[in-house]
Write a structure and sequence with these properties.
Elements (H helix, E strand, L loop, with lengths): L2 H11 L14 H7 L23 H19 L4
Helix pairs in contact: 1-3
Length: 80
């Protein structure tokens, strides 16, 4: 299973709708993906990024943690 598919499956299991699209930006994941290594930027649940009213609701952070735990669980079940 590819890394993007693992993230997508984990999000679905956590009740989060994956929105798979290319992004521009200065993230490490964007650069690695550009260089040919699929590297999803997993949501943080934030709003108004890089502005004076940037914020992240606690519920969104909790949901992000749930997705990360599910990614670890799915990856742990993969055959080596």
């Amino acid at each position: 299973m590819f890394v993007v598919e693992i993230a997508k499956q984990a999000m679905l299991q956590a009740g989060v709708e994956p929105k798979i699209k290319a992004i521009r930006g200065g993230t490490d994941g964007a650069r690695l993906s550009y260089d040919g290594l699929p590297c999803p930027n997993i949501f943080a649940g934030g709003h108004n990024f890089h502005g004076p009213y940037e914020f992240v609701p606690v519920k969104s952070m909790e949901k992000a943690v749930e997705v990360i735990v599910k990614i670890a669980q799915l990856a742990g079940k993969m055959k080596k």
